[in-house]
Design goal:
Layout (H helix, E strand, L loop, with lengths): L2 H14 L7 H31 L4 H9 L3 H13 L9 H9 L4 H13 L2 H11 L1 H24 L26 H36 L4 H6 L6 H9 L6 H13 L4 H13 L2 H7 L5 H25 L1
Helix pairs in contact: 1-2, 2-7, 2-9, 4-6, 4-8, 5-6, 6-8, 6-13, 7-8, 7-12, 8-15, 9-12, 11-13, 12-13, 13-15
Length: 319
C-alpha cells in the first residue's frame, strides 16, 4: 500500500535533491520524506472517519450515557470512548471536567482521561501501518487495561475530597437537547475538524519524524541497544521518566518508536516511552493542578506510571 510513497521518497531524495544513496544523509532524508507523507495520509483518512462517528456522539450524549451506568461498566465504556476521541492529554481535560459536573463517578472520568490520549485512533492506525496488527492489538488491550484498572482503583480510593469544590458547581441536570445533523453537515464537520487537527499536530509530526530520521540515519546501530536494550532491567522505568516532560501526541511520538526499534531498542521500552509521553505530561499536570489537589495528581500519575511500566515489561517478555 505504501510502495508508491516509497518510490516518491526515493525519487525526491536521490534524483531531485541529488543525495547519494546508502549514505547517512540519504537514509535520514528518505526516512523523513517517506514517513511524513505516509503519516499525513493516514491521519487525514482516520481523523475524517472518526469525526463522522463522533458527530453521532457529542460530549453531551457521552456524559448522559456514562452518568446512568454501573461504575465498572462506566470505566469500560469511558475507556472505549477514549479510543474514538482524538485528544491529547491536555485537550481531554475539558471533557473530563464535563463528566464530573454531570455526576459521572470520578474513577470513570479518570478512565477516560487516561485512555483518550494513550490509545486514540491515530496511535492505533499508525502502529498498524508501521508494525502490524499484532502489535496494535496488544497495545490496545494493554492501554485499555491500564485505563480501566486505574479508574477503578482511583474510584475505590474515594478521593472526591481532593477535587476542587468549584468543579462540582454548575452540574448538568435534566435532559439534554442534542442537535440533529444532516449527512452534508456531518461531512463538512468532519472536513473542518480534520483540517483543524492537522493544523495543530503537523509541527509535532515534523519534529517527531525529524528526530526519528536523525536516529534512523545517524545514531550508531548499537548505541541505544547498549543503554536501553531488553537486557537492561531499568530501561522501561527510565523510558517512562524520560517521557513525562516530553509533551507530544501519538502522531509525533510513533515515528520515534519506529526509529528506536530499528536501532535495537525493545518494543516494550519504546512503547512505554510513547505511553508516558501521551498519557502523562507536565502541561497536563499543570492544568489539573487548577482543578484538583497535588496529592490526587500524584496518585493519578503513580497508578498510570506503574501500569505503563508493567505493560513495557510485558511487551518485552512476549515480543
Amino acid at each position: 500500500m505504501f510502495y508508491p510513497i516509497q518510490l516518491l521518497a526515493d525519487w525526491l531524495t536521490y534524483t531531485v535533491f541529488r543525495i547519494a544513496s546508502k549514505t547517512l544523509l540519504g537514509d535520514a532524508v528518505n526516512f523523513f520524506i517517506f514517513d511524513t507523507i505516509k503519516i499525513l495520509i493516514l491521519l487525514s483518512v482516520i481523523i475524517f472517519v472518526v469525526s463522522i462517528i463522533r458527530s453521532y456522539l457529542p460530549p453531551e450524549k457521552i456524559r448522559a450515557i456514562l452518568s446512568h451506568k454501573n461504575k465498572y461498566v462506566g470505566n469500560v465504556l469511558a475507556s472505549l470512548l477514549g479510543i474514538i476521541t482524538p485528544f491529547c492529554s491536555c485537550s481531554a481535560i475539558p471533557l473530563f471536567l464535563g463528566f464530573v459536573q454531570a455526576g459521572v463517578p470520578l474513577g470513570t472520568t479518570f478512565s477516560f482521561l487516561i485512555a483518550s490520549p494513550m490509545i486514540n485512533e491515530v496511535a492505533i492506525v499508525l502502529l498498524l501501518g508501521l508494525f502490524g496488527w499484532k502489535i496494535a492489538l496488544v497495545y490496545i488491550v494493554s492501554g485499555l487495561v491500564i485505563a480501566i484498572l486505574s479508574g477503578i482503583i482511583i474510584g475505590h480510593l474515594k478521593v472526591e475530597n481532593l477535587v476542587e469544590p468549584f468543579v462540582y458547581q454548575n452540574s448538568i441536570n435534566g435532559n439534554i437537547d442534542l442537535p440533529n445533523m444532516t449527512r452534508k453537515e456531518r461531512i463538512n464537520y468532519a472536513l473542518l475538524y480534520t483540517k483543524d487537527i492537522l493544523k495543530k499536530v503537523w509541527p509535532y509530526i515534523l519534529v517527531g519524524i525529524g528526530l526519528g530520521a536523525w536516529i534512523h540515519g545517524y545514531l550508531p546501530a548499537d548505541f541505544l541497544a547498549q543503554y536501553a536494550g531488553s537486557g537492561k532491567w531499568y530501561a522501561v522505568p527510565l523510558a517512562v521518566l524520560i517521557g513525562i516532560p516530553l509533551y507530544s501526541n501519538a502522531a509525533g511520538v510513533i515515528p520515534l518508536v519506529s526509529a528506536l526499534t530499528e536501532k535495537g531498542v525493545s518494543m516494550g521500552t519504546t512503547l512505554a516511552l510513547m505511553m508516558s509521553v501521551t498519557a502523562l505530561s507536565l502541561p497536563e499536570f499543570m492544568i489539573l493542578k487548577k482543578v484538583m489537589k497535588t496529592r490526587l495528581i500524584f496518585i493519578f500519575a503513580g497508578i498510570v506510571a506503574v501500569g505503563i511500566i508493567f505493560t513495557g515489561y510485558l511487551f518485552n517478555f512476549i515480543l
